[in-house]
Amino acid sequence: MLQQIEGSQAVARAVACCRPEVVCAYPISPQTHIIEAIGVLVRTGELAPCEFINVESEFAAMSVSIGASATGARAYTATASQGLLYMMEAVHNASGLELPIVMTLANRAIGAPINIWNDHSDAMAASDAGWIQLFAETNQEAVDLHVLAFRLAEELSLPVMVCMDGFVLTHAVEQVDLPEQGRVDAFLPPYAPHQFLDPADPVSIGAMVGPEAFEEVKVLAHLRQLDALDRIPELAAEFEEIFGRPSAGLVGTYRTEGADTIVVALGSVLGTIKDAVDERRRAGQRVGVVGITTFRPFPTSEVRSALAGARQVVVIEKAFRAGGGGVLSGDVTLAVQDSDVGVHTVVAGLGGRPITRRGVESVLGSAARGELEPLSFLDLDNAVIEHERARVLSASSPGPDGTATVRRRPPPVASPVGEAP
Amino acid sequence: MFQVRIHGRGGQGVVAAAEILSMAAFDEGRFAQAFPSFGSERMGAPVVSYCRIDDRPIRTHEPIAEPDALIVQDPTLVHQVDLFGGLADDAYVLVNTSKSFEGLGLAEFASRFRPGRLLTCPATALALEYVGRPLPNAALLGGFAALTGRISLDALEKAISERFAGVVGTANAAAARAAFEFVVDEARAGQDREVVARAPAD
User: Fold this and answer.
1) Per-residue pLDDT for B196 more than 80?
2) Which of A215, A243, A271 is the last residue of a domain?
3) A154 located within any domain
4) Within 13 Å, how many C-alpha atoms sit on residue A158's CB side?
5) pTM for the whole structure
6) Complex ipTM above 0.90?
7) How far is the first Cα of chain A from the last one, in angstroms, to the nearest whole number?
8) Regarding the domain delimited by B2-194, which CATH topology (the fold level of the hierarchy) does it fall under?
9) Chain B residues in contact with chain A using a Cβ-Cβ cutoff of 8 Å
């Protein structure tokens, strides 16, 4: 049913339609609205049977999810940013124990300095945790990917993280076609666990594995991840048959035909990039877009095919490894390593800095003129960087970069809205 | 695409106003996107929300830097915050106050805009009269509907009643209607004043 609804509310309703039996989460901006809404659905009995368990931390939230999933219950949780980091030990255990937990990650920057706004640092910190990671471009995709995620997780016995941009999507009120219960039931059968704890038939899950078998276990986990690359397009096709609208799958392409420059990105910024590409196409530049929906496992061959024919690739990413470079760029570079395509990384939108159509157009303009550096930062205030570097070298005043930089670039007077961190 | 920016203070329903406007546009079969300027909310602190309305799907998610219309829910922001940034001369401006632009110290600013596109509306007074609380957001949306013609009063009243259940919804819808009528009357009076002002020259 088509509704004008906040992204968080829409996701909560979609998750409820997937009939989770245990929901355990700890609130953190910008995930809070999702969990509050599911809490209400459990309290009113609209989502039943389901146990909503309040805990004291994200570590406990993931641990309870692991326990619930191990006893054969369909388990769901959600978090963001520092919350994900706090549960990280258990995040690896969930994938290592092959438990099909579904988790929403309302993407938010990681501190210090503390920042509650959107970027992809949290998802990237978990990109090697053995979870499948799906990125939503719109709230419609966020909703649909959750339905797909439960089916995929349970078929492969792997946890799935659905990433949606914090605030930008979670707090945006847009039209969403909410999935009907009957169609979700047709797409998603009851959970049939591959393994579960049963007092009548005791087994151990997660026994110690020594050097004689650990490597094999890890390779098996890798192969099971790769199975998702075959399964996701099939499930997307089945989803379309049942729901009558296409689902996002591995990668999406936009105006890539004849494009000599292709932008690659994750998440909601793809909408702004598509608008910028339309403008540049009107001006005669041959540009296109490839959006990555499935980030883990990385769909290397699909990305290679989607980028075939491009002369240069511009990866716009909302994350950055200090001392390294882009994260998504690394995967894209590997995908095109046998060709002579040039890959440029543009880091943008860190800590919630708006990525504007004009900003993206300026990047594409630089690309057209062959002026794009291998690594650049959109809308960077170079004067502040230079001043800070000089200050640190002169050692005139002590203190971390974050504190000193805020003194030179104070927040706007119009203090923005949301909720307390 | 028509883009609206709403300024107010935490607790005045700034975010709800953008949501209601988007729901009304959705009800009229159009595409709409409402979102807050994100951050740490505090009661009384300056806050901003945005609403885009279009006849085709809206893909962009950037904040609105150059609005086609501006709604100011709290006139005490006028000399504190950069309210009018990115406004073109033909933009609509609606300020919640019982004063005139001259009374707000904005006479020079107001002269920059196309006549009939700037209005003040005593939305807090109307909210107190109809709702019993100083929450001007619904009334201002009624004024916005009359000033811009971008949304029908019927769709707006329906959206307000959907957002606020029961008597609260009915009272807010009544406040919106009252503000709508106020702005229609003001606009008519303004035209009369212009006619009168032009008369000697004619």
Assistant:
1) no
2) A243
3) yes
4) 26
5) 0.94
6) yes
7) 33
8) Pyruvate-ferredoxin Oxidoreductase; domain 3 (3.40.920)
9) 7, 10, 14-15, 18-19, 22-23, 26-27, 31-42, 45-49, 58-63, 65, 80-82
